[in-house]
Amino acid sequence: MTTETTTGRTTAQGSPASPAAPVTVELHGLDLGYDGRTAVLTGVEGTLHAGEALALIGPNGSGKSTLLKGLLGLTRPVRGTVRVLGRRPADARRDVGYLPQTAEVDPTFPVTVRQVVAMGRYRRETDRPLGWLRPASAADRRAVTDALERVGLADRARRRFGELSGGQRQRVLLARALAGDPGLLLLDEPFNGLDETNRDALEHILAELTAGGMSIVLSTHDIGLARAVCTHAAVLAGRQLAFGPIAQALAPAVITAAYSGRSDVAAVYAAPFRDAPAAEAPGGPVADDTPASRRGSTR
Ligand SMILES: Nc1ncnc2c1ncn2[C@@H]1O[C@H](COP(=O)(O)OP(=O)(O)OP(=O)(O)O)[C@@H](O)[C@H]1O
């Protein structure tokens, strides 16, 4: 399995990150399951640093959401360890932003955009949660405004959430995830259903966040998104097939194995990275000590 090295570390811009960049995610010998006994995802091994973004790639049912839930402390390790921001996932939860696959805010519910984003401040103070028990502080209000500015929707703060388009609502929910000032942002298929304009906007926002030192882990079926946003990839198929700099992790042999011999899928995934060194077939290690140079070579 892979071992992250300083030379393999890249920022979202494809340039080497500072050797001092802190580790944000550590996965070691990890098997995850839902009942504490039966693993649905095995052999997860890898490290992510501040400013790096990891794409979880794999077919339906391969374990992408399960791994995200593992980082949130919602799925239990059957074996191995997960560390998030140097802590157990449950202990790091208040410093992790999460954008779920299916938005749970009912668009017909009469709340403003600002109120939705303010929900992201709830877990900042577990002893005095924002809402009924305490009014918003100046820091809360500033954080909500900052988050709305980051996603380009500050001018919609007083609008009803349900009046916004689906793509704008997605950005509001991203702002909610950012309002808690997370060190790690988890996104479950964030580009689903977005048109090109909103997709470009989200891509830009995520690139800015990683440039500012945030770590991102996202699941996606969209190779364009993975290429545009992520420095690293983990390829899953019920077990980890690769974890490393994105150009290497998405090697044809790995993708073919993940998609059960579908070489056409492998061609789509691997095409941008043809110049990258070949990875070993799944089961063997994927060396990750070569810079991804993602933006320079793959777009
Ligand atoms: N709550 C649950 N309880 C038990 N098993 C589950 C649960 N959720 C998912 N699984 C199982 O875990 C495995 C991995 O599912 P997961 O949702 O992580 O896949 P995925 O890669 O995110 O799929 P998709 O691309 O369809 O979203 C599947 O076999 C699935 O049936």
From TrEMBL:
<dbReference type="InterPro" id="IPR017871">
    <property type="entry name" value="ABC_transporter-like_CS"/>
</dbReference>
<feature type="region of interest" description="Disordered">
    <location>
        <begin position="1"/>
        <end position="21"/>
    </location>
</feature>
<feature type="domain" description="ABC transporter">
    <location>
        <begin position="25"/>
        <end position="263"/>
    </location>
</feature>
<dbReference type="InterPro" id="IPR003593">
    <property type="entry name" value="AAA+_ATPase"/>
</dbReference>
<dbReference type="InterPro" id="IPR003439">
    <property type="entry name" value="ABC_transporter-like_ATP-bd"/>
</dbReference>
<keyword id="KW-0813">Transport</keyword>
<feature type="compositionally biased region" description="Low complexity">
    <location>
        <begin position="276"/>
        <end position="289"/>
    </location>
</feature>
<protein>
    <submittedName>
        <fullName>ABC transporter ATP-binding protein</fullName>
    </submittedName>
</protein>
<dbReference type="Pfam" id="PF00005">
    <property type="entry name" value="ABC_tran"/>
</dbReference>
<keyword id="KW-0067">ATP-binding</keyword>
<dbReference type="GO" id="GO:0016887">
    <property type="term" value="F:ATP hydrolysis activity"/>
</dbReference>
<dbReference type="InterPro" id="IPR050153">
    <property type="entry name" value="Metal_Ion_Import_ABC"/>
</dbReference>
<feature type="compositionally biased region" description="Low complexity">
    <location>
        <begin position="1"/>
        <end position="11"/>
    </location>
</feature>
<dbReference type="InterPro" id="IPR027417">
    <property type="entry name" value="P-loop_NTPase"/>
</dbReference>
<dbReference type="GO" id="GO:0005524">
    <property type="term" value="F:ATP binding"/>
</dbReference>
<comment type="similarity">
    <text>Belongs to the ABC transporter superfamily.</text>
</comment>
<keyword id="KW-0547">Nucleotide-binding</keyword>
<feature type="region of interest" description="Disordered">
    <location>
        <begin position="276"/>
        <end position="299"/>
    </location>
</feature>
